[in-house]
Backbone:
């Protein structure tokens, strides 16, 4: 059966994680005061957003240049 995301609220996906990765995500979710599901969703969403990463790198380079580190 095919469906479009607009036809359902959320799609479910089963994912197996290594114990180490599970622990890292759990820790990060706790730090960010969110659920593991939301944390994984945020990480995945951010991975598709190159502009976010590019902006962070550009800002970092600008700060380092200002401090004459690079």
Residues:
């Amino acid at each position: 059966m095919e469906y479009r995301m607009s036809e359902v609220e959320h799609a479910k996906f089963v994912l197996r994680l290594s114990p180490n990765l599970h622990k890292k995500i759990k820790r990060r979710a706790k730090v960010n005061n969110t659920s593991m599901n939301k944390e994984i969703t945020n990480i995945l969403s951010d991975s598709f957003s190159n502009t976010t990463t590019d902006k962070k790198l550009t800002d970092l380079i600008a700060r380092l240049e200002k401090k004459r580190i690079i």
